[in-house]
Fold this protein.
Amino acid sequence: MANWLLAVALGNQLPSLISFQIPKLKAMGLNLEGANYFRFFTIAMLVTSVIYMFVSRFYRERAYIQHYQDAALVPPVLASGAPT
């Protein structure tokens, strides 16, 4: 959950940093006003999704499931945390 909140927080900072840099980017020839501002983020999402397509090919799923026999050796625990 903490990683998700960190990702959201960093994702919220990106438009803020871009908006802060608009005058400097305009001086460099990159105009991010009006529809160009939204096109910039659309292209950024497209590039990110293409990168994800390549990264996802190397992702290997792992299952962390205990065997039924191993689960029988563990005593059940009540909601309060006390063993039964």
Remarks:
- Helices lie at 2-20, 22-27, 35-56, 68-73.
- The first helix runs from residue 2 to 20.
